[in-house]
Amino acid sequence: MSYLVCIPAPELVSRENCEKIHNILARMSDQYRLNIVPEPVKMRQGKYPDYYRKYRIYKELKEQGGNAEPYLAPDEESMLLSVCRNADEEALMKGCTYAYQYPANKVLKVFREDKREKRRS
């Protein structure tokens, strides 16, 4: 089954930030009626705390070759940001890495640069 993965940026790893991301995704799950499954992050570079999770977002995905650019589609961006209550929550979601997990490969996606720049200023 195909799904969108949300992985919080390693530099954002703190219990507070991880809980915020979890709560944002829970609100998104309720609003959009999505199945979102948290799972531990396993990386070769080091060991992460137990509360650091990545999330599988099961939603209807576009065809694998449909969106070849490395950016999230505008509807995906609005879905991810629509449940954020303030600028800090938006910055957390924009700091995450997203990837489509297809049966044969992963395709990384990010927010468009102009939207990411707003976060930094």
| Computed structural class | alpha+beta
What amount of the residues lies in strands?
15-25%
The separation of the N and C termini measures 38 Å
Question: With helices defined by DSSP (H or I, 4 residues minimum), what is the helix count?
Answer: 4
Number of strands: 5
SSE topology string: EHEEHHEEH
Overall shape: it is globular
Mean pLDDT: 83
| Low-pLDDT stretches | 115-121
Descriptors for this entry?
36% helix, disordered C terminus, 121 residues, single chain, five-stranded antiparallel β-sheet
Description:
The structure is a single chain. With 121 residues, the protein is an alpha+beta fold. It has one domain (3-120). The protein is 36% helix and 21% strand. It has four helices and five strands. Strand 4 (97-101) and strand 5 (106-109) form a beta hairpin. The longest helix has 18 residues, at 15-32. It is globular, with a radius of gyration of 14 Å. It starts with a strand and ends with a helix.
Brief synopsis:
Helix content is 36%, strand content 21%. It is globular. It is an alpha+beta fold and 121 residues long.
What is the fold's blueprint, element by element?
Layout: E1 3-7, H1 15-32, E2 35-40, E3 53-58, H2 74-82, H3 87-94, E4 97-101, E5 106-109, H4 113-120
Antiparallel strand pairs: 1-3, 1-4, 2-3, 4-5
